From TrEMBL:
It comes from Candidatus Avibacteroides avistercoris. Keywords: Membrane, Transmembrane, Transmembrane helix. Signal peptide: none annotated. The chain crosses the membrane at residues 6-24, 45-62, 139-161, 173-198, 204-224, 236-256, 276-293, 391-409. Residues 51-159, 277-379 form the Nucleoside transporter/FeoB GTPase Gate domain. This is Spore maturation protein.
Length: 410
């Protein structure tokens, strides 16, 4: 229901802004741009879905091998004490706990191509426990918000873009990104727990949060002492070793249990192809709405208004040029990435704005995209408090990105 209102609002606001630009400023091309954006965005959404097909097919097949080999069930049992409190509606030891863990691990290591199919797999299992209802369960909301908060320990792609755009030290944003994304995840977790009345001061959960905080602090200290070459080498190595180790362990476990690995893979891969086809309409819907909003000039007007307000309050407006990336991030990952690159090309990769947009890009994930794809893949239409909690995580992460960037680079 919330997505319905937001989707309508994008089009109505775009129409009003375009009408004002046409009548008041004589801009006769704005409506042409809007209509063109609908075709371009629809084509992009379709290509994105098709591009996901191969990855979804691969990882759905791998996950099926892991299930047959018993690895996913083993992970579920290990994580049961923590997950039974974060997801109180889930049966203890259910395989979905393992799927959730695999998805979150892939996200933390920056393995986007692997994280999405693992997340869709987990969401499908959650929907089975939800009885196929069109209304999201508490567990589905918690899982989605943990995804949208985007906890990323190794932001490989952002450091790669900075290197390509001539940054003297592409890895200098690593620590600020880790701090900002941790704030985002913590804010999203607290928001959902408050909404669902989950006791965060439970000894098990509190211990878990303390351990995670110490691990993040340890990673910050470890990588902060490395030079650019060492950080690039080790971050890439850790991510790739993790990825291939998962595949190898799944296959070995299946062989030990005398599973026909090839047939198990094919069985899971078929589900991956079907999932890729199901998400196409949802991707088209959200990306076309975002494209129309941008093409109308509504985004530019919003940024200019915020800049004027900041200056009127006598505050430093040095962060304002980075706001297009911040506002686009919850709407479109590719759009935010493009704006990040544009800002670095315009202001310089080592400028304050260039560094800030990098931290913003890594601080959180694409809420509307994840909401559309994850819930759309299982037919959930009533998203409940997933969107507001996801946006709380986004706001916390992006605010932290600005504050931390001023601390490190201001």
């Amino acid at each position: 229901m919330v997505l319905n209102y937001i989707w309508i609002a994008f089009f109505l606001v775009a129409f009003v802004v375009a009408a004002v630009r046409t009548v008041a400023f004589g801009d006769t091309e704005v409506f042409n741009s809007i209509v063109s954006s609908t075709f371009v965005s629809a084509e992009s959404a379709f290509k994105l879905s098709i591009g996901l097909t191969g990855v979804l097919t691969l990882w759905m097949g791998i996950m099926r091998v892991g299930e047959c080999g018993g690895v996913v069930n083993a992970l579920a049992r290990v994580l049961s004490p923590v997950f039974s409190r974060l997801f109180p509606g889930l049966p203890k030891g259910h395989p979905v706990n393992g799927s959730i863990f695999m998805n979150l691990s892939a996200n933390m290591l920056g393995l986007d191509n692997a994280a999405t199919p693992l997340g869709l797999k987990a969401m499908r299992e959650l929907q089975e426990l939800n009885g196929g209802s069109e209304r999201a369960s508490d567990a589905m909301v918690m899982f989605l918000v943990l995804n949208t908060s985007g906890l990323t320990i190794i932001p490989i792609s952002i450091m790669m873009y900075r290197s390509q755009l001539g940054a003297a030290q592409p890895t200098d944003v690593f620590v600020p990104i880790l701090i900002a994304t941790f704030v985002s995840t913590l804010a999203g977790l607290v928001a959902v727990c408050a909404w669902q009345k989950i006791n965060l001061f439970n000894r098990t959960l509190l211990t878990f949060l303390v351990v995670v905080t110490l691990v993040v602090a340890g990673i910050i200290r470890l990588f902060a002492g490395m030079d650019r070459a060492a950080m690039d080498t080790w971050s890439t190595l850790v991510a790739n070793v993790f990825l291939f180790t998962v595949i190898t362990v799944f296959i070995i476990a299946a062989v030990v249990k005398k599973v026909n690995v090839y047939e198990a893979f094919i069985e899971g891969a078929k589900d991956g192809f079907g999932t890729a086809v199901r998400i196409i309409p949802y991707l088209v819907a959200i990306l076309v709405a975002v494209g129309v909003f941008r093409a109308s000039g509504a985004m530019d007007w919003l940024i200019d208004g915020i800049g004027a307000l900041v200056r009127a309050c006598g505050l430093d407006d040095g962060f304002v040029p980075a706001l297009p990336t911040a506002l686009m991030k919850p709407l479109s990952g590719s759009g935010a990435r493009g704006l990040m690159v544009d800002a670095m090309e315009t202001y310089g990769a080592d400028s304050f704005v260039g560094r800030l947009v990098s931290v913003m890009q890594g601080s959180t994930d694409t809420t509307f995209y994840i909401l559309a794809v994850y819930f759309g893949s299982v037919g959930v239409r009533q998203t409940r408090h997933a969107l507001p909690c996801g946006l709380i995580a986004d706001f916390a992460g992006l605010t932290a990105a600005i504050v931390v960037s001023y601390m490190f680079f201001g």
